[in-house]
Design brief:
12-stranded antiparallel barrel; mainly beta; YmcC-like fold
Length: about 220
């Protein structure tokens, strides 16, 4: 069984989003090896049914549902994390919290044309990055060009987005999904181009059940008590 250090979050001052917050948590409380449950959330070997999403109402549950999640950051599992869902019109915000402290946020836009990432772990996409364009039957490909901003730093961004039907297995359940893979290239001035892969699993009626944001942060369903 895989051994993964565990971070148990305790209340403290809010530092910000993404890795900075998690690094601060590590300094506050430390970590210890544990026999953590596997959180690979691998795809099933069984035949994959075609997954179709035709309109915005088919993506997220209605009404929104809060749920426990596994959050893995830089190889560390953060304990006792809940995902709170906020919706206002076409804006969907997923807040990952522990003991009333916000660790990370995911901001999505949802309209008749598709599902987009607006802000993720402190990074803002302009224009929003399209994950799925409606209707989608699992197989889709499109390109993106824009910018990604972190604080005062803005980088040019290009991406190729591809989707396939997939079955996600996790300790939180099995989900028929549209798996979205984003091959993202970031460039700023004369600096070397940074390559990053982002992966999202979108399950009709359940929302974005899992996401891998490069090597920094993975979020997936936890077992419901």
């Amino acid at each position: 069984m895989q051994h993964r250090p565990v971070i148990t979050f305790r209340p403290g001052p809010l530092i910000g989003f993404g890795f900075v917050v998690i690094a601060s948590v590590m300094l506050w409380v430390g970590c210890q090896p544990t026999n953590a449950a596997s959180t690979n959330g691998g795809s099933s070997n069984q035949p994959v049914p075609a997954v179709t999403i035709s309109q915005p109402s088919e993506v997220f549950p209605d009404p929104p549902e809060d749920s426990p999640v596994h959050l893995i950051v830089a190889g560390y599992e953060v304990k006792d994390v809940a995902m709170k869902v906020e919706r206002e019109g076409g804006q969907v915000r997923l807040k990952l919290t522990a003991h009333n402290e916000t660790l990370q946020e995911e901001h999505y836009l949802l309209d008749a044309s598709g599902l987009y990432v607006n802000r993720m772990v402190g990074e803002t996409f302009d224009p929003p990055l399209p994950l799925v364009k409606f209707p989608v039957d699992g197989n889709q490909s499109h390109d993106y060009s824009g910018t990604v901003t972190v604080g005062q730093s803005k980088r040019d961004a290009k991406a190729t987005v591809t989707t396939v039907s997939d079955v996600l297995n996790s300790i939180g359940g099995q989900f028929d999904c549209v798996k979205v893979t984003v091959a993202l290239s970031l460039r700023q001035g004369s600096a070397p181009t940074q390559e990053r892969q982002l992966v999202f699993w979108v399950s009709p009626g359940h929302g974005i059940v899992k996401r891998e944001y490069g090597s920094e942060a993975t979020r997936e369903p936890a077992a419901k008590s």
